[in-house]
Every structure is written in structure tokens, then in C-alpha cells.
Amino acid sequence: AFGDFKTNFIFHEGVAKILKKLLNKKGIINLGGPTKTVFNFAKKYNPNVKKISARKKLGKNFPLNSYMNLKKLDKIILKKS
After folding, report:
1. Exposed e or buried b for every residue in 22-50, given b needs 16+ CB within 10 A?
2. Which of 4, 9, 17, 40 is most exposed by smallest CB count within 10 Å?
3. How far apart are CA 75 and CA 48, in angstroms?
4. Mean per-residue pLDDT for 61-81?
5. How far is CA 55 from the centre of its chain?
6. Contact at 8 Å (CB) between 73 and 12?
7. In whole angstroms, what is the distance from residue 22 CA to residue 30 CA?
């Protein structure tokens, strides 16, 4: 799994829990989980996963940071209902 590629993983169960709070909101709201590398995410579910480099495997033009700004989502989730 890529040790140098970061993104915001979230399972559909996590989306389902958040979705009700977003139904009446307006604007663009990025939806995702905590920012982490693909390796850290995979390691949690498969302790035998090996770390590889996305840069070496996919080339220098591959964007290594595809994570999103989740500040707006955090404000909505943390707000008392």
C-alpha cells in the first residue's frame, strides 16, 4: 500500500451516520474520514500489508496529497443537534 499517498478514507457506514446532518445544509461540503496514508489505512485491516511508494510506482506527476479540507464538515458534525 502507498506510504506516501494521503487521502480521506470513509466507509459507507460512516457516510450513513453523517448524511442525516447534511440533508438541509447548503453549499459544497467535503465528506471524508481523517487524513491518512493508504498504508496506514490498509495496515489497520491487514497487518501484513507492505509499504510501497506511489511516486516510484505511478510517476512524479501523480498527486500525493488528494485529501480534502473537512473543516466545514467538522463544524456541522460537532454542532449540537
Report:
1. eeeeeeeeeebbebbbbbbbbbeeeeebe
2. 17
3. 36
4. 87
5. 19
6. no
7. 11
55: left (phi over 0), alpha (psi -120 to 50) or beta: alpha
Predicted confidence (pLDDT) per residue in 35-67, tens digit: 999 999 999 999 999 999 999 999 999 999 999
Please determine, for residue 81, whether its predicted confidence score (pLDDT) is greater than 60.
Answer: no
**Rounded CA separation 25/70 (Å):** 15
Tell me how far apart the alpha carbons of residues 43 and 39 are, in angstroms, rounded to a whole number: 6
The Cα–Cα gap between 47 and 67 comes to 23
